[in-house]
Amino acid sequence: MLLPYLLLGAILFVLGLIGFVTRRNLIIMFLCTEMMFQGIILNLVAFGRYPLKGAPTFDGQVFALFLIAVAAAEAALALALVVLLYRYQGTLDANAYRMLKDE
Amino acid sequence: MTDPTIKRIETLLRKPGVIFGAGAAILLLVTALLALAFPLYKPLLSAQFPFSMIVLAVMLALILSATAVCILAERKIAGFTQDRYGPNRVGFWGLLQPLADGLKFLLKEDIIPRHVDKPLFLLAPALALAASLLGFAIIPWAGQVRWPWMPPDAPPLSTQVANLNVGFLYLLAVGSLSVYGVVLAGYASNNKYAFYGGMRAAAQIISYELPLGLGLLVVLLVSGTLQLDQIVQQQAATGVWNIFLHPVAFFLVLVSALAEANRAPFDLPEAEQELVGGYHTEYSAMKFAMFFLGEYVHMITSSALMVALFFGGWHVWGLPGLENVTWWAMLVKLVAYLTKVALFIALFMLVRWTLPRFRFDQLMRVAWQSLVPIGVALLAATAVLTYLGWQHNVWASLAANLLLLVVLLRSAARSKRPVTARQDDLPEVDVRPTA
Amino acid sequence: MPTLLIAILTLGAVGLFLALPGGRADTRRVGWVVLAAAGAVLLALLLQLVPGADPRGLFAGFALVAVFAALRVITHRKPVYSALYFILLIFAVTGLLVLLEATFLSMALVIIYAGAILVTYVFVIMLAQQSRPAPYDVKSREPVWGCLAGFLLLILLARQIELFLVPAQRTPLPAPVAEAAGTIEAVGVPLLTEYVVAIQIIGLLLLAALVGAIAIARRRATPRVESEGDE
Amino acid sequence: MTLLADATTTILPLRLYATLPLWPLLGALLVGLLVVLRRKASATHWPVVLGVAASATLAIVLFLDLPKSTTNAALQEHWKSGVSASQRAGELYAVFTGGASRAPALTYTLYNWISLGDQSSLCNQHWLAVNFYFDGLTAVMLLFVTVVSTIIVVYSIGYMRDHHGQPERGYERFFAFLGLFVFSMATLVLSGNFILLYLGWELVGLCSYLLIGFYYPRPAAAAAAKKAFIVNRIGDFGFALGIFTLYWFLTAGADPLVQHGENPLDYATVFKYVGALEPWQITTVALLLMCGALGKSAQFPLHVWLPDAMEGPTPVSALIHAATMVTAGIYMIARCTPIFGASPLALNVILVLGLLGAVLTATMAAAQYDMKRILAYSTISQLAFMFVGLGCRVPDSAVFHVFTHAWFKALLFLGAGSVMHALSGVIDLRRFSGLRDVLPQTCRTMLIGCLALAGFPLLSGFWSKDELVHAAFERHPVAGLILLATAGLTAYYTFRMFFLCFHGELRLPDDAAQPHEAPLVMIVPLWLLTLGAIFAGYLGVTFAAGGESFLGFIRPHGLLHDYLHDSTIGTPEHGHGGLWLMYVSALVALGGIGLAWARFGQAPETDPDARALGGLWRLWHAKYYFDEIYDYAFVRPLRNLGRVFSATDDYGLDGVIWLVAAVPRSLSFLLHFLQRGALQGYALGMVVGVAVLLLLWNLIGV
């Protein structure tokens, strides 16, 4: 029962990753990181429910909860930054923000 | 107009005896049919799942028809508040007005403007109604029941559609979805005013979810469970409703519920004077009706929730209590519950027609600068009480509430800042006429 | 099985590459067909792995919805739709969590993700909305390399998962779960006893995020164009 | 062996007494609240006055209420047969924790505070508790601490105002600190374990710092506060080390002394096992603890802070630096009698330091002109008397002297404060004289205070000082002689101050506009303290028929000593023979007063001593150059050492760090072209990296 969940989690994770790499809209990129979180949450909870040995524990759920909190923090900060960037240049294109490059 | 038959029918319909008589006849007919088919229902009624389904069907029908009555009640109360009659043409005392309204909604032309984002435009009203309706699943309407033909050692059935162990968290989860209907309606309409309305609604609903959650958490701390039926049973067992323990929490939940349902004085998203019609400017006919329906259903859900959390659910002192699980007791409980809900709805309507609307910055300030701090302080106080084991002590809880209130009013009085003050960092409005 | 899996995933990579925004409408359509084929085979494969009768259909349904929603999130050209499909994804994950007997977590996921985080996303997307689709939404960036690397990683991950679960344990029997599994108590007790330090750190993190978000949002950015003009 | 009478318990519940320290704290917090609420400053003293008064009431009731043993004669008999010191310490424990027979030491535990040791294994559970310890010593200390504090707080209401009766700047702050101080001192005295004692100890130091630096805009006050704080830290360092070593000795090893369930730093536990320690261990602990007492009680090597501390407001000087805080050191040593009593070396060190301090500071006091400084040096000198008493194994007499000293020293300070108040802050004896008629009430009360300090017969100082002199004579004749001479000197310099201030022709400083008698709120406390100065001594004497003693019916070692026997002090009774000493010391006191009258009776404008003694007097006047010696011996070398360290840090360590930083910087120069600024490119790189790692892992095999 564990394997399908792990595979599904991996698929969600990788799809999020691909989205992050290929989409150029900053908001969609952050959405993709959230998608990766979904994959990880699924993974954690599945491991908690079907542990490799011993009885099921709730640790996986606890860590998933932490992950949700991190996601919330990330959303707050990332979106604030995105709004600021949008005000700054009027575009959400990730390619437009390459100022951190060492000229 | 001059057709005598129509005239006769109209005069007939204005007579109360005819309407009530017809209603009684229908009721009698249904009862007779039920009695005839009764042996068939017996096994169905004895197991939890089919029974829950029946409860679902009955309550859904009841609520959807109740919204119709609510519309009438709304207009009647509006009339009462404004010292006029309200609808009194269709049927005796306007009783058939909902029917007329519904017909009107159905028969009007259903317009989909060309510039809208069509899939979302269609999705939005459905979402709005569905999110409101989902909440009914966990309302414990009438406690537990054991039918006479059930064996005495069988566990009594619960008159609840689903007894989730996450309890009112489910309600919060479902309630948090209601924002999408409004936001998407505003976005999809591709109309400036609708968009503003949607934005306002989103900000408002998110903001007021916090005090709502805090108020609910207070109840959670007191009762130690999330399941609504157990909360009701606790109140019924002790006879002390939670409102007596935590009036401030109730106030928080009440205000937040008003705001979540977009009711006045928090109906900014659809403020006609500012935003034409708000997020449903572009909607017409049945799609508009669905928003309308959603609002009323949301109101009923909130009322039912508050009754369960703070007003003892079906419990009334002197009426059949916890241990009485006979079918007639269930009916009594159901009536008690519905009466309480009806009273709440009447309160909502009265509030709507008496209080003026907030300005948007005031609205946000009420949520973030007063309700949320109150909620946090109350939660902390309740946590301390719970730690001390006094969470069921009426006097301790009341004292905590009172103290909080006093501190609050005192600091509010000392701050010397009027509630209606303009927010400092709002831009100056240039009132000079443009050349 | 590995070869089959590799084949499926390669198919998926090709399909995704075609379906990503950038090409013509009919290539995207072809991509979807390929993706659907790959998904169907994958689903059959997954179903084979799930023992028992009852949760199989539900799992399959939720998994299908989840993968479909995830694909739509990364392929849709309109950001609002992406966000809405993400909500669909969350509901699918919620269903899967319920299947995993984590009811409290599922509700928390809906409340926090659908009720708060995604609303903020939708909000920001709407604020930054432009009248016509922006060029950066229409054309994706290095789709070949992205799909290639991503699916290579996925294949390797799947292989790792396979290796990791030694055959005897590949399908560990569902162990009996305690009565109160997934309730707020079951999750709350370890949260506040074993992981109390972690929860305090999380609180600190949230506070920092709050302060940071406010500090960032209050800043008035001077548009770059103007500043260049000044110079 | 039933040593003593059966245990009784207090009439009022112990938990009521345990609230004793809290009332002043509550008062202090309330003052803070009032300040926040911006009430007028002039009424903010009420919470503290009431809080301290509540404490005082509780302390008086406790003093009367505490169960007393009827006799400990059996133990005395037992000891007379000759037992070793450590054995005696062990038996002492048996007395005051009482085994089965009695419990004169009542303990009230509020809650367990800090867990020590391994909580997971059930075999070794120790706690530090917040517990209060009630015995005779506690009761006596609390009695004068709280009552004198109350009087001083009331006095401060009048003192801390300007000419127009308006509160000074910082009025509320002052009272809040006073409340905090009484709280700290009560905690110190009431604590039932060393850690809580240390907490109170440090709190007292903190309050002292805050109050000395009350006029912080004045550089001298700020410097004095810092000096007090730092010098106290030196002593406290030793004190803390002492506690740590004690803990270590008691719990270290595979088979520790402290058993399961006992709290290792509680007095009860410590005194139970202290007898089982090696002698060198006891001596180490005792000497380290003594360091703390030296700092807090301003004894010989660490005495330099107390005279400077007179920069604070006068009530502070009276409260902290005469009546209560400096007695903490005496209290601690008396409390730890089972430890010190088992270490002859430590006792000898205390004795010698006490003798040295007594003489040195008494001579310093004889050559000062600042009234408050004279009183400060006299305080140190008197505390040194108590140290001598502690060194001579008569802690009960030392505590008795603490008790009487608190009254008359507070009186003297407050009197000096009254003079300052009248003369707008002028305190230099050279600038005024003959205030007898201007300040009649102050003059009268001061006279009684001076007499008590000088050891005039029948006043309180006489009884207690005499006991100490007596004990010193019993220990060694030289010590007794030194103390006796110092007592004479005390009488001399006390009355030198008194005559210079109040006698002779009336001279006033120019900047004192209208010298006036203090208001009633200051005079009444003075008279109350005067009563204490007269009668406090009679708590420590016995009234008995029979001609063997002075005046026929008064005998030393009375009520207070019996009372103290119930405490950890529990000293063996020492004989009260040698009544001739009473007459001698009375004569010495009278001689000192007479000499002072002869030389200063008319308050001459030039000091006759300075001429007569020449260089010696200048040495005294310059306080033996202690501050300068310390400056050269410690402060400057340390400062130079600090410069060396600073330079090492700046050039040595930072240089290394710079070097370390240079390596990645040069590396980054090689790699920086990889940075293209595209976020997604980096992400892609990470993905590829992970994939490659996994691939490698796969190929190499798990």
Would you give an account of this structure?
The complex is a heterotetramer of chains A (103), B (435), C (231) and D (702). By secondary structure, chain A is an all-alpha fold. Chain A has a single domain, classed as Helix Hairpins. Chain A is 74% helix and 0% strand. Chain A has three helices and no strands. Chain A has helices at 2-22, 26-49, 59-89. The termini of chain A are far apart. Chain B has a two-stranded antiparallel ribbon. By secondary structure, chain B is mainly alpha-helical. Chain C is mainly α. Chain C has a single domain, classed as Up-down Bundle (Four Helix Bundle (Hemerythrin (Met), subunit A)), CATH 1.20.120. Chain C has ten helices and no strands. Chain C has helices at residues 2-19, 25-49, 54-75, 79-99, 103-127, 135-138, 143-164, 184-192, 196-218, 224-230. The relative contact order of chain C is 0.09. The model of chain C is unreliable at 226-231 (pLDDT under 50). With 702 residues, chain D is mainly α. Chain D has a two-stranded antiparallel ribbon with strand order 1-2. Chain D has a two-stranded antiparallel ribbon with strand order 3-4. The N and C termini of chain D lie far apart (76 Å). In chain D, helix 3 packs antiparallel against helix 6 (136-159), helix 5 (85-96) packs antiparallel against helix 10 (267-273) and helix 19 runs parallel beside helix 22. Chain D has helices spanning 14-18, 22-36, 46-65, 73-80, 85-96, 136-159, 171-190, 194-212, 219-251, 267-273, 279-296, 305-308, 314-323, 327-335, 337-340, 344-365, 371-391, 395-422, 440-454, 460-475, 477-502, 520-535, 559-565, 580-600, 608-613, 615-621, 626-671, 679-700, and strands spanning 106-116, 126-134, 541-543, 554-556. Chain D is built from 28 helices and four strands. Chains in contact: A-C, A-D, B-C, C-D. Chains A and C meet through helix 1, helix 2 and helix 3 of A and helix 3, helix 4, helix 5, helix 6 and helix 7 of C.
